[in-house]
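Proteins fold. Shown next:

***
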Amino acid sequence: MGSSYLPSGVMINCTLMTVTKPQNLGVVRSSKTVINTKRAAWLNIDDKKVSVSFVCKSPAKFWGGLGAMLVGIAVGIICIAVAVVVVAAIVGTGGVAGVILAGMAASVTGATTVIAGVVAIAGAVSIAIGDYKVAHACDCSLEGGSEWTLPHNKVTFNQKKALLQSSILKCVKGGMIQPFISPVVAHKAAVKFSSNNKEEVDQHLKQQAWMGFVSGLSGLGDPIGTGIGVGFAGWEYVEGNDDQTLANEGSTADEDYKTDVGNTVRDNSAGTIAGAGKGSIDVAKTMTRQNQTIIRELMEQGATYDQAAAFSRFGEKTFKGEFSKMGAGLGVGLGVGLAGSVANHYIAKSYKENKVKLIEDTLKNARNMRNEDSENNENVIASKS
């Protein structure tokens, strides 16, 4: 059976839509001289006007996911900061573990709390931006880049190729807008597409919230480590996600793994360098304080300053423990960072598998309902395209 020509106002759905009812395709060209018996213009490839936004899932996923990740990081920062202080108070300062915990607790300063607050606010702002973006995402259909495929190759309306029931508008956001002649089929498709896409967005937000929470914990409440972690988390999210990626979760499992390994190596390298610098400063401060104590005590016993200073140089063995504590502290920080990276890899893997299944189901339904709608027509059929 041939494919029907499309009149203005025909129902359309998008594979990325989150609204539950079809929209309509309007005419944007100035010349509309070819009309049907209902006074509706027959559409051509210049016509891309969507009546109302489909509330596209791509910007919803991007901005909502970024916001969820940042809020998750903020919650993780607060939780680990409280946990470190509480555990340090319970354990005390005995042994290397106690000293490490005491040092971690001492580093949980107002700066850490400020970072958490700023991150939480940034998350809320991202979500608000997303709300605006989804309301205007469909504007891109008229701004260029989105093109109709499978028009009639011979018939033209006002010098442009005619649109057919089988035509598809490929959106630059990654979705496929397809027309439906039957209102029943159109509504059924809209409900199915919307349901899958809303669930996919929900899965993405949960994934990012959990990954953010793990990243927040990995900073161990230290302002330096936390600041570095937040910066990298934001960079990696923006670098690894765009409209096309989020529309179809297009990267393969192998590509995801390589990306995760690269991010882990970079993050932990930076964290280790920062931790080493901080640890070296802490050790230097401790050694300086101990030197001052030794010199002061010797001078109180009658030694001159030069004698006391010379004697203190023989006390290097006093400081060996400080270097071991620095090493142990770095080991804890690096270990937690690696554990967090591994945890985030499996969180992302699990949620992505769920999202890909939803995407595949949406595309399968798009094909099936397209075939079902082909049995309907507008009584003006293109016999050959």
User: Anything to note?
Assistant: The beta strands are 3-4, 11-14, 23-26, 49-50, 147-149, 156-157, 160-161, 168-170, 176-180, 381-382. The CA atoms of residues 13 and 178 lie 6 Å apart. The longest strand covers residues 176-180.
